Amino acid sequence: AEWYWQSLSKGPNDPTSKFHAKTYGANFTYEQFAPMFRAELFDPNLWIDIIARSGARYVVPTTKHHDGYTLWKTATTPNWNSVDVGPHRDLIGDLMTAVRARGLHACVYYSLYEWFHPLRRKGHRFVDEVMLPQLFDLINTHKPELLFTDGEWDHLSDHWNSTYFI
């Protein structure tokens, strides 16, 4: 979904923007999709049953991608997470509980990068005020066995303060 938002930023003549304006209206923002995301059919136990029967031993859900919407409640994203808007539940917590109950490895994917966060281009403020607090919260709350990060292509590890986090 967040790639859709990225495509919308290319301007009104981009095919995605034209589709969006025709389908949802020119003034309908990406953020307005969040309340529509309800996850009413999400059954973590069913998912994990299917995953376990496939032979997989590791489950690595996306906790946050480049749009910044988190699938757990974190103080750095009020009203832009799955507990405050949309499904009104901690999707990562529900999934991690089901993963552990089946004896699978509970891991997580997290995007360091956020395309549209207002602090993104403010030096280390995004890292210090958003990213690191989110990562510590994610690790301390959900205790994954493995953390896979993405989005490092824009900066070196010093910018992301990776050694501090590790």
Q: What is the secondary structure topology, with strand pairs?
A:
Elements: H1 2-8, H2 15-24, H3 44-53, E1 58-59, E2 62-64, H4 91-101, E3 105-111, H5 125-142, E4 146-150, H6 157-160, H7 162-165
Parallel strand pairs: 1-3, 2-3, 3-4
Characterise the protein shown here.
The chain is built from seven helices and four strands, in the order αααββαβαβαα. With 166 residues, the chain is of the alpha/beta class. Strands 1, 2, 3 and 4 form a four-stranded parallel beta sheet that branches. β3, α5 and β4 form a beta-alpha-beta unit. α3 crosses α4. The chain is globular. The protein starts with a helix and ends with a helix. The model has no long low-confidence stretch (mean pLDDT 94).
Number of helices: 7
Computed over alpha carbons, the radius of gyration is: 17 Å
Q: What is the averaged pLDDT score? A: 94
Order of helices and strands: HHHEEHEHEHH
Helix content: 25-40%
**How many E strands?**
4
Strand content: 5-15%
Shape: globular
Major sheet: 4 strands, parallel
Rounded to the nearest angstrom, the distance between the terminal CA atoms is 30 Å
Q: From the helix content, strand content and strand pairing, which structural class follows?
A: alpha/beta
Q: In terms of per-residue confidence, which ranges show pLDDT below 50 for 5 or more consecutive residues?
A: none
